[in-house]
Amino acid sequence: MTFGGDGEINMGVSPSVPQDNLIQQYGPIRDRLQSYVTENYEVPDGFSASMFVGNNYSAIIQALGQGTADIAETGPFAAALGVKSGNADVILQRKGYGSWTYVSQIATAPDSDIESLADLSGKRVSFSDRLSTSGCLYPLYDMKTEGNVNIGDLPEGTGANADIEATFAGGHPASYELLANGRVDAAAMGGFVPGIIGEDTFQENARLFHKHEGLPRAPIVVSTELGDTASSALQQAFLEASETIYLGADGEADGDDEENPDDLWFTEVREADVETYRNVIDVANELGVNEDIFQS
Questions:
Q1: pLDDT of 257-296, one tens digit each?
Q2: What SS3 class is residue 129?
Q3: How many C-beta atoms lie closer than 10 Å to residue 82's C-beta?
């Protein structure tokens, strides 16, 4: 069995993961993939697994299509478009914070006069990434359908004809940072950001005024360049694994460990396919988004 013809499993990680936490958090998963495949299948000598962080969600999906990534963790919207463009197949869904769903949210400064989506007209708004479900797709959809805000050609275009001045920050915490630093009037992000930043710090700099609940939690996807056997091997490596692969390099729950937190945000996976993300696809279709966004 080979992966991409280079003698190793290449795992892509989305830009929502801080680079300095990558090895500590995802190292056990990398090691699990390598050991499971080595123990259960015939592989070349020197077979290994490696990780990289993509510059954005688009880079991850395109790497899968090019065969330079074999498996990746990414967002629901990016994965759905990856399937549509023939670059990726969804094999697993992740469970985090006790739920298979999560929240999209928009925040403003604590002393801002913004109280509703309609108030965003004429404002500067940051989004995490063009292919982010919680940090872009649903916020734009809600602005359009609930706030009656003209979003123009966003998220694919520049937004030159929109009622908002859009900025793409390159990650969820980065979207928050633009708000905290006063560079935007509002920031869209995933509901997990306060936990990353710290609840007290977040509340000092941001006030939530809109939420959209029930988004399907993010998937694990594989390259369509893989054969069925290789794809199944990677899926089973997760499904048959113990919970310790989600507990970081120390193999123990963080608990009160504030100095060396290395647990992953997800604690379980289950089999999934693109239909798990049908609602996300419907929202993307409503906004007229297709795989052309990879060129944006």
A1: 566 678 998 999 999 999 999 999 999 999 988 777 766 6
A2: coil
A3: 30
Quick: pLDDT tens for 16-56. 666 667 788 999 999 999 999 999 999 888 899 999 988 88
Tokens of 292: 């052309």
Amino acid at 211: K
Q: Check: CB of residue 216 under 8 Å from CB of residue 100.
A: yes
Question: How far does CA 265 lie from the centroid of its chain?
Answer: 11
Classify 233 as helix, strand or coil.
helix
Residue 184 CB neighbour total at 10 angstroms: 25
Q: pLDDT, tens digit, for every residue of 137-190?
A: 999 999 999 999 999 999 998 898 999 999 999 989 999 999 999 999 999 999
101-216: what CATH class? alpha beta
CATH superfamily of 8-96+218-295: Periplasmic binding protein-like II (3.40.190.10)
Rounded to 5 degrees, φ, ψ at 34 are -65, -50
Provide the total of helices (H) and of strands (E) in the chain, helices listed first. Answer: 9, 11
In the chain, CATH 3.40.190.10 sits at: 8-96+218-295, 101-216
Strand partners, 73: 13, 220
